[in-house]
């Protein structure tokens, strides 16, 4: 529960493969076992709880402020939510975080504490601990009003609430049914309602303080305050009453500024939604709609539909892009640097390539091609002709040998591993093992034809590599025979 989840959405997006997740688990246990991993099930469930807590406080704080005296029906649930927020302060100090800029998961206790102190610690402490302290140790006289005002700072956490709402949509089957447009509209409605509720409550407080009388009908008085706030937020005017004092002028000015901000926010979101009609995410959605129509038209079975959708999800990660068009806009040097950056670590682990010159390595890297295999796909089959070598960029594969009766699992290969290198040197060599993808795998292939063409100017190196390949083949045959 406290370590990285094997099935979490964030785990799959950031770590990509089961091997990377296993390495992250080992790192977590060895270096920071006392910390909560940001991609753990426990942390994801707690974030969902805090999203509900924040939403509840955004509703209860202004209502409680508008009600004169102590309304226990509001006071008790608000105090309970404040106590949960106090627990969140402690949990935040022992929870790692994902640095989006560097794409690294930070679990160091000191760095986590510094990060939290720089972000939301003081807001959480003042808006949560102070009201909780008032509940247990203070009376409700005017001397404790400062603690009441401190809880208003909780509105600064609305960014965290919206961020949690976005993450909940990624993992919730119900919310994922909504399109990007509908979900943005839903968030705008939530923000506007929260802003309207807060301005209404403070306008009600002003009216009660101005008349120094408790309204006979609270809800009727609150409805009157709603109408006055709408005047300001919709920029219709300064309200239902004339401005007679400084406090009223200050309140109207604040409401008008909030109204301008909300109006600009709504216009900006509307323009952004129109603009993103051609953006990456919407292109992906349009592509998926076309794909669904294609599947329906061809009447493909459910198993095939799931595999096709799984392929697109893994390849594009919900963001459609045309790789060929992007690479065509770059210079040749940049293209080579990108390919070398991606494949250099894979090439360096191959024994065949240890003593090759840099120019030859670059020629080999340029010949490598990306290929995706889904769970259960047979990458190579025993007895088949070996035409290329494979490099595992991400994912896990299982290697089986066939003794004529049943397949025997020899080993598993994961991120950074390779297989099939003998086929680059030996002509007409048959595969002696079957390799199957046991999860979605991103592989790079190097064909024998491209490799032979690249090493043609280096006959001596080619001769040495052939000797090495023969030795490697003999060792492999011995292993396969012993397994049988």
UniProtKB/TrEMBL annotation:
Entry keyword set: Membrane, Transmembrane, Transmembrane helix
Segments forming domain Cyclic nucleotide-binding: 352-472
Pfam families named among the record's database cross-references: cNMP_binding
Iron-sulfur as UniProt keyword: no
PROSITE patterns xrefs: CNMP_BINDING_3
Gene Ontology cellular component annotations, sorted alphabetically: HCN channel complex
Transmembrane segments annotated in the record for this chain: 49-74, 80-101, 113-134, 146-165, 185-206, 218-238, 250-268
UniProt superkingdom: Eukaryota
SMART domains: cNMP
One MF annotation (Gene Ontology) recorded for this entry: voltage-gated potassium channel activity
GO BP, one annotated term: sodium ion transmembrane transport
PANTHER family: CYCLIC NUCLEOTIDE-GATED CATION CHANNEL SUBUNIT A-LIKE PROTEIN, I[[H]] CHANNEL, ISOFORM E
Name of this protein: Cyclic nucleotide-binding domain-containing protein
Source organism (scientific name): Aquatica leii
């Amino acid at each position: 529960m406290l370590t990285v989840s094997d099935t979490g959405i964030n785990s799959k997006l950031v770590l990509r493969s089961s091997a990377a997740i296993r390495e992250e688990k080992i790192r977590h246990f060895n270096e920071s076992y006392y910390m909560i991993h940001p991609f753990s099930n426990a942390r994801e469930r707690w974030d969902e709880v805090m999203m509900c807590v924040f939403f509840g406080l955004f509703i209860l704080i202004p209502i409680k402020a508008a009600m004169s005296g102590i309304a226990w029906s509001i006071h008790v649930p608000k105090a309970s939510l404040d106590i949960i927020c106090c627990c969140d302060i402690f949990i935040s100090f022992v929870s790692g975080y994902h640095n989006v800029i560097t794409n690294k998961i930070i679990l160091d206790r000191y760095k986590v504490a510094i990060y939290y102190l720089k972000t939301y610690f003081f807001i959480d402490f003042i808006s949560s601990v102070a009201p909780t302290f008032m509940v247990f140790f203070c009376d409700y006289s005017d001397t404790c009003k400062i603690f009441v005002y401190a809880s208003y700072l909780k509105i600064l956490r609305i960014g965290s609430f919206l961020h949690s709402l976005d993450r909940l949509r990624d993992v919730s089957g119900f919310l994922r049914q909504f399109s990007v447009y509908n979900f943005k509209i839903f968030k705008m409605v939530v923000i506007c309602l929260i802003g309207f509720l807060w301005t209404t409550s403070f306008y009600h407080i002003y009216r009660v303080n101005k008349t120094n009388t408790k309204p006979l009908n609270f809800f009727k008085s609150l409805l009157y305050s709603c109408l006055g706030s709408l005047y300001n937020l919709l920029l219709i005017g300064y309200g239902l009453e004339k401005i007679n004092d400084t406090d009223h002028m200050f309140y109207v000015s604040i409401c008008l500024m909030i109204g301008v901000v909300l109006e600009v926010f709504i216009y900006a979101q509307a323009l952004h939604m129109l603009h993103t009609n051609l953006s990456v995410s919407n292109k992906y959605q349009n592509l998926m709609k076309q794909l669904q129509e294609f599947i329906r038209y061809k009447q493909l079975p459910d198993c095939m539909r799931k595999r096709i959708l799984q392929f697109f999800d893994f390849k594009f990660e919900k963001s459609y892009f045309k790789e060929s068009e992007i690479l065509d806009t770059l210079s040749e040097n940049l293209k080579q640097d990108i390919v070398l950056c991606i494949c250099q670590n894979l090439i360096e682990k191959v024994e065949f390539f240890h003593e090759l010159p840099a120019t030859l390595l670059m020629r080999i890297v340029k010949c490598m091609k990306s290929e995706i295999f889904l769970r259960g796909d047979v990458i190579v089959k025993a007895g088949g002709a070996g035409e290329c070598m494979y490099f595992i960029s991400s994912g896990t594969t299982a290697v089986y040998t066939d003794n004529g009766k049943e397949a025997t699992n020899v080993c598993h290969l994961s991120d950074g591993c390779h297989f099939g290198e003998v086929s680059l040197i030996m002509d007409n060599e048959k595969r002696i093992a079957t390799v199957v993808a046991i999860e979605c795998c991103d592989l790079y292939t190097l064909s024998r034809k491209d490799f032979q063409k690249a090493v043609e100017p280096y006959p001596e190196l080619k001769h040495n590599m052939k000797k090495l390949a023969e030795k490697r083949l003999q060792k492999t045959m011995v292993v396969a025979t012993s397994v049988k």
